[in-house]
Amino acid sequence: QVQLVESGGGLVQAGGSLRLSCAASGRTFSTYPAGWFRQAPGKEREFVAAITSSGLDTYYADSVKGRFIISRDNAKNTAYLQMNSLRPEDTAVYYCAADPEGTYTSDSAWDSWGQGTQVTVSS
Length: 123
What we know:
Blueprint: E1 4-7, E2 10-13, E3 18-24, E4 34-39, E5 46-51, E6 58-60, E7 68-73, E8 78-83, E9 92-100, E10 110-113, E11 117-122
Parallel strand pairs: 2-11
Antiparallel strand pairs: 1-3, 3-8, 4-5, 4-9, 5-6, 7-8, 9-10, 9-11
């Protein structure tokens, strides 16, 4: 229904920035909220940020609030996660998601997932 591909991950020094992109296939992506989750080794996948289909409302986990910015460009079928002031504890595989059903902060609520992109922050 919705296929997602993340890009933009990499290795960055603490305090640096990265911008992740999530490219969606199809022509209906603009009708769905989009979200970002992350998973560190030995941890459960956790909510990072979400954005409504219009792009007018955003939601953030407390751990990234004030540092990360979620956005979208529906004309390009793409969602973004701008990551600033990165910390070693931000190291994780980052996943984008779409087509939620239920509580958006739970990974089980989202039906479509990308394969993830690795973000590594060195101290």
